[in-house]
Amino acid sequence: MQINPGAAEFPHRQIAAQLKDRVRRGDWAPGERLPSIPAIAEMFGVAKQTVQRAVDQLRVEGVLITKPGSGTYVRGTRRRLNRLARGRYGGFRGYHTDLAARYRQQLVSVGRAAAPPEVADAFGVADGTELLCRRHLVRTEDSPVEVGASWFLPADTAGSSLERAEAFGRPLYQEAEEATGRRYATATDTISARQPSREEAEILQIRPDTPVLHLLHVAYDERRKPIEVAQATWPGPMTTLTEEYRIPAPAPEPDPDPGLVLG
């Protein structure tokens, strides 16, 4: 392994690229510990600070993970996700066995909370209005991969099962349909990238400078009135959002005008 001092790319980026290539080739398997920072610095003939910058870059990208007092390891590839909001509904209403098999969702809290601006805007209420909030954490294997919340208008949920701090044996939207008497008809998803809040970084066990993907999911009834506003936040480098869909066939050519003479 070596760097090119005359290259336009910074040395730490050259090192990061080569370390990533070795991970991709399988030289270091998921969960395997890398050589120490001084050892890698000696391999490349650079200062330890340069290697540290390379390792920091790969940590932000989700390739490596550092365990204090233990060392730097290759992050497990199984922690990559395929999560889109429509996956909660499945190809058929209520079909989510694949989702349940891969992820473990833990209910964190249920109660009234001040609505953040994006949630308040979706419901058409003032910022800080108290709404019913069901917060959750999703894990895969031993790692947290999603922090999220589902918000409802208290008038829709008063005295219903949605106010109880308990998980349901079926998708939340089905419970909400029964509790509110309204059917989910359409939904919109807005996905954005940003830096995590301090709380999100701590819960997701990521560096504060690791970007996250944030989903705002608004589900409406037939009258286009919001029933639920859901939020989900994922570590950006470890998350892939994949959707498969059909592409419409070309429209058939119109029949020629019978009155038109072709010659």
Brief overview:
With 263 residues, this protein is an alpha+beta fold. It is built from eight helices and ten strands.
| Helix and strand pattern | HHHEEEHEHEEHHEHEEE
Which structural class fits the helix and strand makeup?
Answer: alpha+beta
Which word captures the global form? extended
State the low-pLDDT regions, or none. Answer: 92-100
Largest sheet: 6 strands, antiparallel
Strand order of the largest sheet: 4-5-6-9-8-7
Tell me the number of strands.
10
Please tally the helical runs, counting DSSP H or I stretches of 4 or more residues.
Answer: 8
Question: How many angstroms separate the termini?
Answer: 72 Å
Percent strand: 25-35%
Helix content: 25-40%
Question: Rg, please?
Answer: 24 Å
**Overall average residue pLDDT:** 86
